[in-house]
Amino acid sequence: MSVIRGATGDWEVVIGLEVHAQVISNSKLFSGSSTTFGAEPNTQVSLVDAAMPGMLPVINRKCVEQAIRTGLGLNARINLYSVFDRKNYFYADLPQGYQISQYKQPIVGEGSLTIDLPDGSTREIGIERLHLEQDAGKSIHDLHPAKTFVDLNRSGVALMEIVSKPDLRSADEASAYVTKLRSILRYLGTCDGNMQEGSMRADVNVSVRRPGAPYGTRCEIKNMNSMRFIRQAIEFEARRQIDILEDGGTIDQETRLFDTKRGVTRTMRSKEEAHDYRYFPDPDLLPLELDPAWVEEIRATLPELPDAKRERFIREYGIKPYDAGVLVSEQISADFFEAVARGRDGKLAANWVMGELFGALNKAGRSIADSPVSAENLGGLIDRIADNTISGRIAKQVFEEMFETGADADTIIEEKGLRQVTDTGAIAELVDQVIRDNPDKIAEIKAGKEKLKGWFVGQVMKASKGKANPQMVNQILAEKLKD
Amino acid sequence: MSTADLTELGLAEARDGLKAGDFSARELVDAHIEAMEAAQVLNAFITETPDLARERAAAADKRIAAGEAGLLEGLPIGIKDLFCTDGVRTTAGSRILDNFIPVYESTVTAKLREAGAVMLGKLNLDEFAMGSSNETSYFGPVRNPWRRAGDPAAELVPGGSSGGSAAAVAARLALAATGTDTGGSIRQPAAFTGIVGLKPTYGRCSRWGIIAFASSLDQAGPMGRSVRDVALMLRAMAGFDEKDSTSVDAPVPDYEAALTGDVRGLKVGVPVEYRADGMPEEISALWQQGMEWLRAAGAEVREISLPHTKYALPTYYIVAPAEASSNLARYDGVRYGHREDGGNLIEMYENTRGSGFGDEVQRRIMIGTYVLSAGYYDAYYLKAQKVRTLIARDFSDAFGDVDVILTPTAPSAAFARGEKTDDPLSMYLNDVFTVPASLAGLPGISLPCGLNGEGLPLGLQLIGRAFDEETVLRVAGVLEEAAAFDARPAQWWREA
Amino acid sequence: MSLDKATVTKIAHLARMKLSEDRLDHMVGELNNILDWVETLKQVDTEDVPPMTSAVRHSLRMREDKVTDGGYVDRILANAPDAEDGFFTVPKVVE
Ligand SMILES: [Mg+2]
Ligand SMILES: [Zn+2]
User: Fold this and answer.
1) Poorest-pLDDT segment among A256-265, A390-399, B325-334, B341-350
2) Among all residues of chain C, which has the CA nearest to that of A270?
3) Is B161 among the catalytic positions?
4) CATH class entry, domain C5-42
């Protein structure tokens, strides 16, 4: 258990997350306008999204399907009967004066998710619920000295609010939770997980308590859209609360904002007022009743999810759990790896993908989606190592060329003449030459300085421009030295 | 035919006359524009659109000539100013929308246009349809064309909220009009002005583009001078709309064809609970008379019980304001309508909504906000929703035994302006007979069946099974024939 | 249950309506009258009675995921009291 040491003893931090994930769909939850990000202000707004008088919502089937798919991916109960409610409050970017959400009867009930911790351990985190709701528009505060500008392009885009149980105990765990959730959503194709563009945002509920004591009063830090900020905010907020409690104070339940510049949380002024959301079933909509056959149809199309894939990679390819975890975090890298590893040495494949390829991509600032080295070509390179056409060292040279040109291994090996030398006579000649050139060193070896053998091998390899088979060099050199 | 004669026609008669070539749509529309312009004192219209009407009438004449006439081709009607009309100011009778020009057309008015109907203008109403007397309109009260025989100086209300619609039809300014009914807003003004008003089954007419008052209750319907006229107009207004999630995908019958005049063997229920204490003798006598007329036509009249009737009004006055408080949150001065500046966003909201809404609307927003608020939701809102279930069950039980229910429409004839404005509750009580069917979502019609001692019209109401407007209309047709109501207000407003 | 002026003031704020002192005073009486009147609902036994949220019985109809709307910023802003550069505007909000 992770504890925070305070002046008066140990404290435990308790964290629950409400993640808002924008649903991947062409059109909005209750209107036919587009969900594309980054359009000119108010161009992707329908009369419904702008809450014109007399406008009515009609639900998008795809958004419902995405919520069900996500629920199934989180091992959650799908509620065949759910209800849309209105959450009433006034805000500039909330045109209706209410958000259509789900309150008492959400579409998805309890589920769970396994997080992977830095020390290699895993922990199961409970999911409380998932519900569908409308996103708000965007308020822009810095375009005018006296006015806030409102863009409703985002207004009405479908969100899944995924609420965890208060099961998380550290910033590490919270971060692992968001990472895993994001990975699952991306595998499912229900949210693109793009935190910079705001398609995944988290409200973080933080409280502290003495280990084993009942939950303390929590504060909600709103709208966090970076993993780093989530960690910083939790650490700051836990410390803040501990300091208050150790000074004999009490925590006010409130909504706070994380100031990214100063690294602190502060009371959110616009939410300072006591809220009373006056939830009630939206009379413009009817209860959502799902056909169980449809749910089963969706279940049948679920992809293999990261946890299952990780287990399979360990089992089938014999790779290390850590490596498997890294490879499955994104579907595309898992698929790439698998294309390289299939029918080959899995460990070797993992080393090449995670070592050379990821390293080179990283250096070049590219992603695996636009890797110049295809999985097929990387596989071909490994094949040439396995059949002794080239040595591991030459292979790195081939890979560099491959990364530059996108050519396949055989072409590069032929063009550059990198084929390994395995002709005994040719190698013996090189060995003899090196011996001839270094009589003093030979004398030292014969006097017992064994270490110099390695130097000799190196000289021979150099003379062969690296192409001599190193085992053969070793063997022939040993025989010659015996004489 | 003279201009005055053309305003004497009913909707169906005018349709037949146009078809026969007795007059043109342009002549028909001009006659009504003249009547509308001569009746300013009634304040029935908030916005008159004579130029648009003439233009559309000319187009209608072309379509008639080309043999492409729609169901209501060339027929001048009025539109309650709660229906959004593309390019024509739509106010909901409120200051908060006094400058609002929709860029879209409500489904119902679009259907009417498609059927060829010609809009004369936008009709006055209680602000956001909240009221039973048309006194809450920001654009001033509507005068009832009817006057008390012994007291012509007293200005009577036309009922509400569709008071402008009722007055315009009764005064023959329009052949027919659209109304909306949330708790009686079509039926009660119809009764107060001696015309026929039908509230269809909830889900029958699309709510898309109608400014919402209470979403689970609002329903558009026709108002006209005969049962046939409302049957004709309903056919053009009704129908499934995929833009309204509460719209029901059921075929729209030819309602006129339902007017067979035959009610033999039909079972008519008379709810004992509607015999309220203090019901004026004239109204209970008229109700009795209605039963006799139906018996004489071969129907069987029997008593039924709707045991939760007395809870309907309190239930309604929780449910409707609750929904309204949320529906009216969008009027915040940001995207359209009236805006009153403030030092910050909250002040801007408070100033805008403080000055943009009238007293009654504010009262209902307050009630609605309160009954939904934390700690009170269960005691008020949830409780009311449960009682609503019981009220709806009363009706479904009753419709196991009878085919239609007969009641008075309102507990009184039209009252004088200002008579009930000091006491909101006394105003609310006016909806006592109309609200139960609204809560249950059932179709109801009011038709004029007699006059009271002061020469004012009184209406009877028929309530039917869900989506059985045909039976309601058929029985109404028989009652209409028996009542032979032909009284009409003197055209005093022309001299005024 | 009886509402006092402080509560009525709170509700008015929740509903974002500025009411004059005079109106608030009146409102206290009016709201209490109405609330007293609806108290009669307490007499009804609603144990095991489900709430009725709609007069329509069918379940929610779903539409296809197609872009069929939007793309008309001029119509969206046509009635705006104070639009600027394609945006709606409000007095500056401090978060
Ligand atoms: Mg939240
Ligand atoms: Zn949310």
Assistant:
1) A390-399
2) C95
3) yes
4) mainly alpha
Please tell me whether residues A278 and A130 are part of one structural domain. yes
Separation of alpha carbons A447 and A435, rounded Å: 15
What's the rounded mean pLDDT across residues B177-205? 98
Give C62-66 contacts, CB < 8 A, sequence gap 24+: C62/A59, C62/A60, C62/A61, C62/A64, C63/A32, C63/A58, C63/A59, C63/A60, C63/A61, C63/B242, C64/A60, C64/A61, C64/A62, C65/A25, C65/A26, C65/A27, C65/A60, C65/A61, C65/A62, C65/A63, C66/A26, C66/A27, C66/A32
Tell me, yes or no, whether A441 and A475 share the same domain: yes
| Distance between CA atoms of residues A360 and A337, nearest Å | 15
pTM, full prediction: 0.93
- Segment A46-104, tens digit of pLDDT: 999 999 999 999 999 999 999 999 999 999 999 999 999 999 999 999 999 999 999 99
ipTM of model: 0.97
Residue C50 near chain A (CB below 8 Å) = no
**Statement to judge: residues A167 and A194 lie in one domain:** yes
Class of domain B3-265: alpha beta
Ligand of minimum distance to the alpha carbon of A203 = 1
Sign of the alpha-carbon torsion through B374, B376, B379, B385: negative
CB contact at 8 A, B427 and B421: yes
* Catalytic choice (B185, B206, B412, B446): B185
Residues in chain C: 95
Q: How far is B346 from chain A (nearest CA, A)?
A: 9
pLDDT tens digits, B160-188: 999 999 999 999 999 999 999 999 999 99
Residue after which a domain boundary falls, among A271, A298, A325? A298
| Residues A115 and A180 occupy one common structural domain | yes
From the CA of A107, how many Å to the nearest CA of chain B? 18
* Alpha carbon distance C93, A271 (integer Å): 11
A388 and A463 belong to one structural domain:
no
- Same domain assignment for residues A144 and A220: yes
Residue at which a domain ends, from A367, A384, A416: A416
- Spatial distance between the Cα atoms of A120 and A153, rounded to a whole number of angstroms: 42
Q: Give the domain range for residue A446.
A: 424-482
Which among C14, C55, C75 has CB closest to B216? C55
Q: Locate the domains of chain B by residue range.
A: 3-265
Q: Is A38 on the interface with C (CB under 8 A)?
A: no
- How many angstroms is it from A133 CA to the middle of ligand 2? 7
- Round to the nearest angstrom and report the end-to-end CA distance of chain A: 66
Q: What is the distance, to the nearest Å, from the Cα of residue A52 to the centroid of all Cα atoms in its chain? A: 40
Give the CATH number for residue A467: 1.10.10.410
Instruction: Measure the CA–CA gap between B45 and B112, rounded to whole angstroms.
Output: 19
The number of folded domains in chain A is: 3
Mutating which of B245, B369, B381 best tests the A interface, going by the most A Cβ atoms within 10 A?
A: B245
**Chain centroid to CA B234: how far?**
12
> How is residue B432 written in tokens?
């006592």
Using one digit for the tens of pLDDT, what is the confidence trace for B371-385?
999 999 999 999 999
Whether residue A110 is found in the same domain as residue A177:
yes
